[in-house]
Design brief:
The protein is of the alpha+beta class. The protein is about 45% helix and about 5% strand. The longest helix is centred in the middle third of the chain and has 51 residues.
C-alpha cells in the first residue's frame, strides 16, 4: 500500500476528506476489490480506539520505574559477581568497573538484558498512556466534525423554511412519507442539500457504509413493505429529526421556524433507551437548535431545562403537546 493511498483510506475512515476527495475514494473502492480489503484491514486496526478508551492502570508509571530499578540492580549484581570467582576477584572486578569510563557515542556493542528491559518497560508504559490520548483526540475530532455537519443541515433547513412559508420539511401523518427521516430526501429534492454524507455523523456506525445514499421521494412513494421499512430506517442518516406537535384540538401541525434559541430541531440519533445517543460511544450528543447553533449535551436535556428532547411532555415518543414541545425521533418513527 503506498503512503498516498493509505493516507486517503485513513482520511476516509475518519471522515476527514473533502466531498470531492471522498467521492474519488469511493469510486476507487467500487473498482478495486483489493483496495476494499485494505480498507477493512485499516478499519479493524482502528477498532481498538473506536468504542471506549482504555485507561492506564492506577500507579502504572510508578510501578514501571520500580521494576526498571530492581532489574537494573539485579542484572548489575550478576555481572559483578559471576559464579566461581573469589572475593578478591570480585572486588577487583568492581574496582575495574568503577574506574572504567563508558564511551560517549555508539560503541557497536550488542544490547544488554537491562537495555532490553528498560526499552520494553518504556514502550509498555508509553503505549498505555498514549492510546487513551489518541482515542480522546479522535472522539473530539468526530464530535467537532459532527457539529459542523449539523450546522450545514441547519442552513439547509433554514433555507427550506424561507421558501416554504416558514415551515420546515413536514412529516406526514400517514402514507409512505410519514417518517421523521423524510427531512433529508426533501432537502435533497428541493436542492438545499447536495452531499448525502452531510447526514452521516463520523462517530456513528453509518460512517463505515461507503454505499450510503439518500433515497429520492419517488423511490419512497413507490416502495412496498420491507423495502419501505428499510428506506425509512436509514434515510435520515445518523440524525434524529423533530416531529411536529398537536394543537389544543388534537390536530397535527408541522414544525414552524420561529428561530427559537432553545428548541431542539435535529440531533444525534436517540438510543433505544432514550437517555443519550448511540453516536460518539454514548458519551454525549450534538443538538442543532432552531436558531442554527449547535450544543453538545451529556444527557437528553438542554442545559438548565428539565425538558426531555426525545419525548413529549407526557413522556411519549410522539408529536409535541404544544408548539414549544420539541420531540426528536429516529428516522423510521411516524407521528
Amino acid at each position: 500500500m503506498t503512503e498516498s493511498i493509505q493516507h486517503d483510506l485513513l482520511g476516509y475512515l475518519l471522515d476527514a476528506l473533502e466531498p470531492e476527495e471522498r467521492e474519488l475514494v469511493e469510486m476507487e473502492l467500487e473498482r478495486d476489490p483489493g483496495l476494499r480489503d485494505q480498507l477493512d484491514t485499516l478499519r479493524r486496526g482502528l477498532l481498538v480506539l473506536r468504542d471506549e478508551a482504555c485507561e492506564p492502570p492506577a500507579g502504572l508509571a510508578a510501578r514501571t520505574c520500580e521494576f526498571v530499578a530492581r532489574e537494573r540492580q539485579t542484572i548489575a549484581a550478576r555481572e559483578l559477581q559471576p559464579l566461581g570467582t573469589t572475593s578478591a576477584e570480585r572486588n577487583g572486578r568492581l574496582a575495574e568497573k568503577k574506574g572504567a569510563r563508558e564511551p560517549l557515542g555508539p560503541s557497536g556493542r550488542s544490547w544488554r538484558p537491562i537495555d532490553i528491559a528498560v526499552a520494553l518497560a518504556v514502550c509498555v508504559a508509553g503505549a498505555a498512556l498514549v492510546f487513551p490520548w489518541l482515542h480522546a483526540s479522535r472522539v473530539n475530532a468526530q464530535i467537532a466534525a459532527c457539529a459542523n455537519k449539523l450546522r450545514d443541515i441547519g442552513l439547509a433547513l433554514t433555507g427550506y423554511s424561507e421558501r416554504h412559508n416558514a415551515l420546515f420539511p413536514q412529516v406526514a401523518e400517514s402514507g409512505n412519507l410519514a417518517t421523521a427521516g423524510i427531512y433529508a430526501p426533501m432537502l435533497v429534492d428541493t436542492g438545499f442539500l447536495s452531499n448525502p454524507r452531510t447526514v452521516i455523523c463520523p462517530g456513528s456506525l453509518l460512517a463505515d457504509q461507503a454505499a450510503f445514499r439518500i433515497p429520492t421521494l419517488d423511490e419512497i412513494r413507490q416502495a412496498k413493505a420491507d423495502r419501505l421499512a428499510e428506506l425509512r430506517r436509514v434515510m435520515g442518516g445518523s440524525y434524529g429529526y423533530a416531529l411536529g406537535y398537536r394543537d389544543e384540538n388534537g390536530k397535527y401541525k408541522p414544525t414552524r421556524n420561529l428561530y427559537r434559541e432553545r428548541f431542539a430541531l435535529v440531533s444525534d440519533v436517540p438510543a433505544d433507551d432514550l437517555t443519550s445517543s448511540t453516536n460518539h460511544g454514548r458519551g454525549g450528543l450534538n443538538v442543532l437548535l432552531e436558531d442554527g447553533h449547535v450544543v453538545y449535551l451529556r444527557t437528553c436535556h438542554l442545559d438548565g431545562s428539565s425538558d426531555d428532547i426525545f419525548t413529549n411532555d407526557l413522556g411519549q415518543v410522539a408529536p409535541g403537546c404544544h408548539v414549544n414541545d420539541a420531540v426528536i425521533v429516529r428516522s423510521d418513527v411516524s407521528p
